[in-house]
Design brief:
By secondary structure, the chain is an alpha/beta fold. Among the domains are: 3-175, Carbamate kinase (3-Layer(aba) Sandwich); 263-338, 2-Layer Sandwich (Alpha-Beta Plaits), CATH 3.30.70. It is 34% helix and 25% strand. It has helices at residues 16-31, 46-57, 64-71, 73-88, 120-127, 154-164, 198-206, 214-223, 276-286, 316-325, 327-330, 357-367, 391-401; strands at 3-8, 35-40, 93-96, 103-105, 114-117, 131-135, 138-140, 146-148, 169-174, 195-197, 227-231, 239-242, 255-259, 262-271, 294-296, 304-312, 334-338, 341-347, 374-378, 381-387. The strands form five sheets. Strands 3-6-2-1-9-11-12-10 form an eight-stranded mixed sheet, sandwiched between helices. It has a four-stranded antiparallel sheet with strand order 13-18-20-19, sandwiched between helices. The model has no long low-confidence stretch (mean pLDDT 95). It binds adenosine-5'-diphosphate (ADP), aspartic acid and magnesium ion. Residues 9, 152, 155, 210 line the site of magnesium ion.
Length: 407
């Protein structure tokens, strides 16, 4: 008998009607002879609300273990409700919190990694003909405290469970019917992909295509979990995430992603001397703040320079506090922050063998009068930082420029 892990995201369980709809779908699959393990997110908007409560009390220095205790609670509600909705349809079901499902993590609160899963409780449940409904996004740390896996982390819970249970596939049900060449909510001419490579999906996710959490793709790639993204509202095939050799024809550019989750920080008039970058970025790293794009401007007077970089918007208040705490020691004039920016990235494995991809991006943006504030590249990706107001314009223009538009 096949075993499939189903994951339903926030919009798919946003209210009781939708929870009933999910329960119906699960019943159909069970009636068709499949064995299932189900993972769910909190109701749409709920995790945001919980995060806001915590950060309103203390924006910069909140206790991350308590943050996890609060924000993990959204999933506790949906697992219970879905189990009840299933039972109401005559499908035996039981809810599991992360720790009850044997999901152990490291102690990095708010962005914990799964270290181990003991599949015994879920296996027993499935073997007894009961559908386990597991809370996504959460686990238990080494000290026995609740942890969460970072925003969008239910995808990772689902893939990790699929690997631990040696499931035949992991189906991620969401509010779009697959992975598109760009966010279909912004680029109406975006095309649905039948297949995408793990590598491209990983890169797309890491630069903002939040249809899958980055870690879930990395995990699927490592454990060879067959992954599918599909709609929880319509019955049709979705997008399969596969190895490169399963793709018949590769595109030079496969997708364009964006993220509004970053903020630009400029440390103005810092001394231009060896060790300054280390003095600024060391304390940020110690505070677990990830720095992404970095630009150091040319020193005009030979003494001072500006160091510009991006951090996640959520980390901005903490980044400011950390930098202020080293101001005396490092010596700089001020910190400027701008969170009205967007990072746009073009992704494609074909970049390895084709030149001119970045140039086309810069030309397309220049032709629209859009100023590029920072650039970063990797082997299969080019990213630029621009003002947030140009998000839609830039995405649509680039999508056309690379010939991705649906005809
Ligand atoms: P869920 O709550 O089900 O986890 P998410 O909101 O996390 O759903 O992810 C689905 C959303 O991802 C879609 O509504 C869509 O707007 C967005 N998205 C961004 N980029 C893409 C893309 N390339 N293909 C499909 N969806 C995308
Ligand atoms: N509820 C969590 C979030 O909103 C996890 C998830 O949806 O995957 O980030
Ligand atoms: Mg999601």
């Amino acid at each position: 008998m096949t075993l499939i892990v189903h994951k339903y995201g926030g919009t798919s369980v946003a209210d009781l009607e939708r929870i009933r709809n999910v329960a119906q779908r699960i019943k159909h699959r069970i009636d068709a002879g499949e064995r299932l393990c189900v993972v769910v997110s909190a109701m749409a908007g709920q995790t945001n609300r919980l995060v806001e409560w915590v950060t309103s009390l203390d924006p910069a220095r909140y206790d991350r273990a308590e943050y996890d205790q609060v924000v993990a609670s959204g999933e506790q509600v949906t697992i219970g409700l879905l189990a009840i909705a299933l039972q109401h349809l005559g499908v035996p079901a039981r809810s599991f919190l992360g720790w009850q499902a044997g999901i152990r993590t490291d102690g990095a609160h708010a962005s914990a990694r799964i270290t181990e899963i003991d599949p015994t409780p879920l296996r027993r449940c499935i073997e007894a003909g009961i559908v386990p409904v597991v809370a996504g996004f959460q686990g238990i740390g080494p000290d026995g405290r609740m942890t969460t896996l970072g925003r969008g982390g239910s995808d990772t819970s689902a893939v990790a469970l699929a690997a631990a249970l040696e499931a035949d596939r992991c189906d991620i049900f969401t509010d779009v019917d697959g992975v598109y060449t760009s966010d279909p909510r912004i680029v109406s001419k975006a095309r649905k992909l039948d297949r995408i490579t793990y590598e491209e999906m990983l890169e797309m996710a890491s630069v903002g295509a939040k249809v899958l959490q980055t870690r879930s793709v990395a995990l699927a790639m490592r454990h060879k979990v067959r992954l599918q993204v599909l709609s929880s509202f319509e019955d049709k095939p979705g997008t399969l995430v596969v190895d490169e050799d399963e793709i018949v024809e590769t595109q030079i550019v496969s997708g364009i992603a964006y993220t509004r989750d970053e903020a630009k920080v400029s440390v103005v008039r810092v001394m231009d001397r060896p060790g300054v970058a280390a003095a600024l970025f060391g304390p940020l790293a110690e505070a677990n703040i990830n720095v992404d794009m970095i630009v150091q401007s040319v020193s005009r007077d030979g003494v001072h320079t500006n160091m510009t970089f991006t951090v996640s918007r959520a980390d901005l208040p903490r980044a400011r506090a950390v930098l202020e705490s080293v101001r005396e020691q490092v010596g700089f004039e001020r910190i400027d922050a701008d969170d009205e920016i967007v990072k746009i990235s073009v992704i494609g494995v074909g970049m390895r063998s084709h030149a001119g991809i970045a140039h086309r991006m810069f030309r397309t943006l220049a032709d629209r009068g859009i100023n590029i504030q920072a650039i970063s590249t990797s082997e299969i990706k080019v990213s630029v930082l621009i003002a947030e107001e140009y998000t839609e314009l830039a995405l649509r223009a680039l999508h056309s420029a690379y010939g991705l538009d649906r005809s």
